[in-house]
Amino acid sequence: MQNEEKQYDSVPPWKRYLLTITEAANYYHIGEHKLRSIVDENLNSDFVIMNGNRILLKRKQFEEYLDRATCI
Asked: pTM for the whole thing?
């Protein structure tokens, strides 16, 4: 299990398909609270995946959402 975690951590965020809220906050320099509110407003969007109670963001689709946004 630890070996798999180390291998995942070695993949840089700009190459990952999915990002957790914490990873996305660090990568996009947006606060976790703000990201959670964006997710709450866009639960049915194509960039949100719920894995149980864990929120995952599809990186490319979320970047497209940010490109279209005029204000966050």
From this structure: 0.81
